[in-house]
Write a structure and sequence with these properties.
Layout lengths: L10 H21 L5 H12 L5 H8 L3 H13 L3 E5 L7 E5 L1 H5 L1 H14 L4 H18 L7
Helix pairs in contact: 1-6
């Protein structure tokens, strides 16, 4: 007999729903800063590794060049980052935070603190959830070792 297929019993749907809920929670607060969620996570990656190559950013964020290039162009147009060609190898492009890109870090941190405070979970529960999400990504082979 085939097992019953129920949407609410599916791990993939629970993860999908949680991902959408997290993205939606950030949407309005980030819009006030002129950032989309994807731009926000890109800025997080750059605050950790300013001057990363475009390809390294794509790997870290799980974004293909067709998505990442326009995203970086918009961030550059708003004055948060600049792209530079490597003088030794012009095929390599690195992404650097501008002074304005560094300045908005504290505003973004305030958004994070407000949203984290609004979640009805203990720090240990949040840590466990994050750990389980990383384990799932590792098992699915989709997590970057640097994440």
């Amino acid at each position: 007999m085939e097992p019953e297929l129920r949407l609410d019993d599916e791990l993939c749907f629970a993860l999908y729903s949680a991902s959408r809920a997290a993205t939606n929670a950030y949407r309005d607060a980030l819009a006030d800063l002129g950032l989309t969620y994807t731009q926000f996570v890109t800025m997080l990656a750059l605050w950790e590794d300013d001057g990363a190559t475009v390809s390294a950013l794509g790997t870290r964020l799980h974004l293909d060049s067709g998505t990442l290039s326009p995203l970086l162009r918009r961030l550059a147009d708003t004055g948060l980052v600049e792209r530079r060609r490597d003088t030794a190898d012009e095929r390599r492009v690195t992404v650097h935070l501008t002074p304005r890109g560094h300045e908005i870090r504290s505003d973004v941190a305030q958004v994070q603190h407000r949203l984290h405070a609004s979640i009805d979970m203990t720090p240990d529960e949040v840590s466990t959830l994050r750990s389980l999400a990383h384990r799932f990504c590792d098992a699915a082979g989709t997590r970057d070792a640097n994440a």
